[in-house]
Design goal:
By secondary structure, the protein is an alpha+beta fold. It has five domains: about 130 residues, 2-Layer Sandwich (Beta-Lactamase), CATH 3.30.450.20; about 110 residues, Beta-Lactamase (2-Layer Sandwich), CATH 3.30.450.20; about 100 residues, PAS domain (Beta-Lactamase); about 70 residues, Orthogonal Bundle (Helix Hairpins), CATH 1.10.287.130; about 150 residues, Histidine kinase-like ATPase, C-terminal domain (Heat Shock Protein 90). The chain has 20 helices and 22 strands. The strands form five sheets. Strands 2-1-5-4-3 form a five-stranded antiparallel beta sheet. Helix 15 runs antiparallel to helix 16. The longest helix has about 60 residues. The radius of gyration is 58 Å and the shape is elongated.
Length: about 650
């Protein structure tokens, strides 16, 4: 039910001054009859109990949840006995109303009787105040005082409270336990006369003087060794804090004593340890230093500063006056890997042992690095040894071992080359020699039988001549290998037209080749000259073209392409022959090197031609390489020679037929 807010509409008792009740600071309600029906409720009541007031209804209907809390029983008793009731800080629990929250209230209230003219009780007058905030504040104050007392008595420090004249007003549990006294034994006495100071000569006088100073407003702090009633002496950090009131007058002094016995002992032990450490620190033969690693905002190590160094540090590193300076100040071009190594130790906390060298310092070091301190520390300790002499000895030993291995391998290779040479040379030389011998014997037999006519004599002599040419070529190749290895192959360089030389080589090859081979020359008309020995480059052309003919099928095409390239002239000899397997690109340029499929095909050759050609080209300042897409897919051999004069324009191949 929605209630009107007009006081006259909320009241059915014309004898009650609505205006007066509305101005009352507390909540007011009037109930009539034994059923406690609402007659009036002021606005303060409605604000405290929104949605509850129903004029004409009963208190039980409005507050059913209070039936078990005693409020309605009290109203019944007051109405029945005629005795008023006064309640203080009475707890009331209210269920939610209109989707509002459940509430806990504390109330000060009074149930007063309303008699009629004959003195008969006709109703109850309720007046009260909401004291919930005050009750909760008092509870919080009690809890706070309890916590403060728990902290006060629970701390291991010795705390008390003094009047300005030094009278002890309060002492915590730790203080009482130190003196082995009850609280009543010391409260009210002068602080310097208590058992805390009685067993230590001079202590009472020192405390009395300190209190006098604190009473003037000075904060006093000093260390003192005090003898408790039993046990060993203890060292305290004693302070006296003056407390002022709002006018600035000293009203209290707070004495505080912190047991620093262990700290004092630890400091003494630390000084002894430091002395021992310092003696060891400067006596060891290893270099030692402590550094602070310096990082940028992204934790990248930039530098490090020397915090401490031992006496051996300077001798091990060659760095003078390092303490307090950074590594980049001392060695500006120091390698970054030093900063990275120490930065990693500083960031991860993982110790590291490593050996590394500094070209800038000209030294090698064996280093052990470990972080000092916790996770946030960037301080690193380094124990290191200069191992430069050892490294130089190892390097010299390794050089000698390498030289020995190289000499041994060279000797073994020379033996293998000799054996290979003897095997191949014997086989290759045997073929033309056999031809020579067989041809000569055939001529002799025919002459003996009278069958050697001029035509047969000419044919026999021609066979002998070809065998001699082949034998001469083999001998020349062997001589060229010897000259190349001894550096005695003569070169007479001069400006040379490679296109003309290639044309001559192709013409000669055409005369020697089978009719099925197609030989093509591709060269631009304005190809620049190169600086080369005409005899040796002609030898290169002849060898490459002869190889292309030898390793190509009868109906194959052999193309020689020339083009200007990179301040020189590049020449490619391309065939459609047997090619070579992958991985043989360099092997075919080795002395006696032949592709596996060439050997398997029983094609003649000593494997010296490409070796000689590459060496001739390289001695001219050029290069040579071979390419093949695989077995049966042809071969392209390309070489390049530098120009004879100023470089010409880069040009592509132009076939000329």
């Amino acid at each position: 039910m929605t209630q009107p807010t007009d006081p006259s509409a909320r009241s059915q008792d014309g004898g009650v001054s609505d205006t007066l009740f509305e101005r009352a600071p507390g909540f007011i309600a009037i109930f009539h009859g034994p059923e406690h029906r609402w007659v009036f409720a002021n606005r303060a009541f409605e604000r405290l109990f929104p949605g509850r007031v129903a004029i004409g209804g009963t208190a039980r209907d409005a507050f059913p949840e209070t039936e078990t809390q005693g409020f309605l029983t009290l109203m019944d008793r007051v109405y029945g006995t005629g005795e008023r009731f006064v309640g203080e800080q009475v707890r009331m629990l209210l269920d939610p109303v209109a989707a509002g929250p459940a509430r806990e209230l504390f109330l000060d209230f009074v149930y007063e009787l309303i008699p009629n003219a004959t003195g008969t009780v006709t109703g109850i007058f309720l007046e009260g105040f909401d004291v919930t905030a005050r009750v909760r504040a008092e509870e919080q104050l009690r809890e706070s005082e309890g916590r403060l007392r728990a902290i006060y008595d629970g701390t291991y420090e010795y705390i008390g409270l003094l009047a300005p004249d030094g009278t002890l007003l309060e002492a915590n549990r730790a203080s009482l336990e130190f003196a082995a006294n009850a609280r009543a034994d010391v409260i009210g006495r002068r602080f310097w006369e208590t058992p805390w100071f009685a067993h230590t000569p001079g202590a009472p006088e020192s405390m009395r003087g300190a209190i006098a100073r604190a009473a003037t407003g000075e904060f006093v702090r000093y260390e003192a060794s005090l003898q408790p009633p039993t046990g060993e002496p203890m060292t305290f950090d004693i302070s006296l804090h003056p407390i002022r009131d709002e006018q600035g007058a000293i009203v209290y002094i707070v004495p505080e004593g912190r047991d620093i016995t262990e700290r004092v002992r630890a400091e003494a032990a630390g000084r002894e340890s430091e002395a021992r450490y310092r003696t060891l620190f400067n006596a060891i033969d290893e270099g030692f230093c402590v550094i602070d690693v310096l990082f940028d905002d992204d934790d990248h190590p930039l530098d490090y500063r020397f915090v401490e160094t031992n006496a051996t540090f300077e001798r091990q590193t060659g760095l003078v006056g390092a303490q307090g300076r950074t590594a980049r100040e001392l060695v500006p071009a120091l390698e970054q890997h030093w900063f990275d190594s120490y930065g990693q130790v500083a960031l991860t906390g993982e110790p590291r042992r490593f050996t590394d060298g500094s070209a800038e310092m000209g030294r090698w070091f064996d280093v052990y690095a470990i972080r000092l301190g916790g996770h946030d520390s960037r301080r690193v300790a380094l124990l290191f040894t200069d191992i430069t002499a050892r490294k130089e000895t190892e390097a010299e030993r390794e050089r000698l071992l390498t030289a020995e291995r190289a000499a041994r391998e060279a000797a073994e290779e020379a033996v293998r080359a000799r054996d290979t040479f003897l095997s191949i040379a014997a086989h290759e030389l045997r073929t033309p020699l056999t031809g020579l011998k067989g041809g000569a014997q055939l001529l002799l037999r025919r002459q003996a039988r009278g069958q050697l006519d001029p035509e047969r004599l000419a044919a026999g002599l021609d066979d002998l001549n070809r065998a001699i040419d082949r034998l001469t070529a083999l001998t020349d190749d062997l001589l060229d290998v010897t000259r190349l290895r001894t550096g005695q192959l003569p070169l007479v360089p001069r400006p040379l037209d490679l296109a003309a030389l290639a044309g001559e080589a192709l013409h000669r090859a055409h005369d020697r080749a089978d009719d099925g081979h197609r030989l093509i020359l591709e060269a631009p008309p304005d190809l620049p000259l190169v600086l080369a020995d005409v005899v040796r480059i002609e030898q290169v052309f002849t060898n490459l073209v002869d190889n292309a003919v030898k390793y190509s099928p009868v109906v194959g095409t052999i193309a020689v392409t020339l083009r200007a390239a990179h301040d020189g002239v590049a020449v490619s000899v391309r065939d459609a022959g047997i090619g070579f397997p992958p991985g043989m690109t360099e092997a075919i340029f080795a002395p006696f090197g032949r592709a596996e499929n060439a050997v398997a095909s029983n094609l003649p050759g000593m494997g010296l031609g490409l070796y000689i050609c590459r060496n001739i080209v390289e001695r001219h300042g050029g290069w040579m390489r071979a390419e093949s897409a695989g077995e049966g897919r042809g071969t392209t051999v390309t070489f390049w020679l530098p120009l004879a004069g100023p470089p010409g324009p880069l040009q592509g191949p132009t076939p000329i037929g």
